[in-house]
Every structure is written in C-alpha cells, then in structure tokens.
Amino acid sequence: MRLMDPLPAAERHEVTAGDGVPLRLTRYQGGTKGPVLLVHGAGVWSGMFKLPTISENFVQYLVRHGYDTWLLDWRASTQLPLRQFSLDEAAEHDMPAAVRKLREVTKADSVQAVVHCAGSVTFFMSLAAGYLPDVRGVVASQVALHHRVPRSTLLKSRMRLPDILDVAVNYMSPDEGTQNPRLQAAFGKMVDLVYRECGSTVCHRLSFLYGRLYRHARLNTQTHERLHEQFGRCNMQTFRHLAQMARAGHAVRYDYGKEENLRRYGSAKPPDYLDPKHLKLPITFVVGDHNQTYLPTSSELTYEWLREANGAALYERKVLEGYGHLDTFMGSTASRDTYPVILQALEARA
Ligand SMILES: [Zn+2]
C-alpha cells in the first residue's frame, strides 16, 4: 500500500436548498478540469468518496488527475440532521441548489457529475424534470430511472416493510447508537442468523436494509471494520419512496395515497419521471456485474430507453467485472479497476 497523496485543503461551502434545508459542499481543488459534483447515496455521506482506509480513494484520484472536485452532502447525508423526506423534494430543491452554488463559486458555465445509487436516482429525477440544464455530462453509478432489485428486496417492498416499521421508528440504521437500543439489538440478532459471510452485525444489518452492498472480497479489512463510519441513519419516508419505486419498476413521485395524490398531482397514482426530453446529454452508466442492491438490468433499461428516445450517440454503458455496488468506490483496488472507467467518461468532456 503506497502512502496517500495529500489532498489540497478542503473548502467548505454551505448551501441552502430551495425549500430552506441546509446542505453542504466540500471542494478539493485539484485543478481546472471539471468542475465535477459527486453525489452520494442514501444512508451514507460524501465520505464514501474519500475513504481513509484504501490506498487511493476517489477524491484523491480525481485530484491527481486535475479535477476541481466537489462533494455534496444532500439531505440524505448521515452527517446532516435527520429529516423525513421524499426523493422528489431532494430532486427539486437539493440538486439544483448544489449545481447553482458550484457554478457561482467556480464561474463555470456547466458542470459534470458522478452520481451513485439513491443519489443517482434523485439526480436523474431532477434532470428529467428539467431542473438541471447546466449539467453537461453525467456518470451514473448502478441505477438511474429504472429499478430492478433482487427478489428478497422486492419481497420486503411488497410486504410494505418500511410502512410497518414506520410505526415503531422514524429511521433505520446499521449501527448501535439508535433511538431504540432493544429493537436494534433484536434486529442485530435476527440479521446475524440470516447472513453468515462475516462476523460483523453492522455489515449484516446493511445487507438486510439495502441488499448486499459490496462484495466482501473487494473490501480490505480496515474498510470492513470501519463500516460504521460510513453508514448511518436513513429516514423511513425515503425507504418508503425507494420501496415504491422498486415496486413500480421505475422512478415515480411519492405515493401519498389516492386522496392526497389527487390533490397534489391531479391523478390517483403518482406520475413517473420517464420523460427523456431533458436527458439529451452525454451519460455514461457504470454498473457492477455482481450488484445485489440494484440488479445490473436497472441501468440497462434506462440506457436502452434513452438510446431509443434520443439516439445512441450520447450514451454509453460500462460493466465493471467482478464488482458489486458500493465497492465501485470503496473497493481496495478500485483506483486500478473502476476509477479509470469513470475518468475516461469525464475526460471526454473535461
Ligand atoms: Zn461483512
């Protein structure tokens, strides 16, 4: 393991979302390429891009290649106060505010983005709704607007598990420090019986909540031992919205129930986000062929749908062999295996 290259000093920028929610941007100015916005998933924070436990993390890698790198902590971040929200709210208010702030500080005409999991879903909802005209290229990790989940996840979604748990708790978390220690201990005992691949209850709770997030062989020991530093609370409304999309098979607005849907949307069922007209920009889909959180067919469906609608030239899809979901960024050798694939897409429109 070689020593990490030091990062340039972090610049913090406070951002206020369109509806007043405080967000955070952290900038590592590695050069003049980009600027590139990194958007994390749900139940994590921007730390997923700058793990201290691997020889070169994604931020170090981008900085080494001369990128002005911006990490967004949007309202799903475990480093921000917990709140209940639908991904519609984040799509409408967080992503546009982040892009605006980034452009304001850098004076750039447009930005690139690397977006992952629920962050990618939300970013694509924002793009599809026409909120992000200043984005000139996107790398979408694992999933975008179409959702195909493993059978066990679909079963939990169909059982309305988030709705049932919502009665008892207002968030789910893999770690020990929760509002209901007895329930969390019972949750730990249950998942330890189901998942046997390692001795970590935190890891087992993650597998239950999100499907298997990484291939163990891809994580080094330190990363696996320090999972609790990367993962935290995910609010129940977001779980419910993700489950609704898993059941629908694609991105839809939050389902409030017939009466409230009629009031808000003018239709009994929530509208979807499948409008390709604002998605006429270069998009690279990257996906681990062993992904057990969102099946690889998820991004294939969005990719094929966009090619059909807007022509093949703008879109590409790269399969990361031997990778799962989050190991795309957290894997011990990701800087050799997966980062170069993402870099290639960024360089094409640097
Ligand atoms: Zn494990």
UniProtKB/TrEMBL annotation:
<dbReference type="InterPro" id="IPR052542">
    <property type="entry name" value="Cholesterol_Oxidase"/>
</dbReference>
<dbReference type="InterPro" id="IPR029058">
    <property type="entry name" value="AB_hydrolase_fold"/>
</dbReference>
<keyword id="KW-0274">FAD</keyword>
<keyword id="KW-0285">Flavoprotein</keyword>
<protein>
    <recommendedName>
        <fullName>Cholesterol oxidase</fullName>
    </recommendedName>
</protein>
<keyword id="KW-0560">Oxidoreductase</keyword>
<comment type="similarity">
    <text>Belongs to the GMC oxidoreductase family.</text>
</comment>
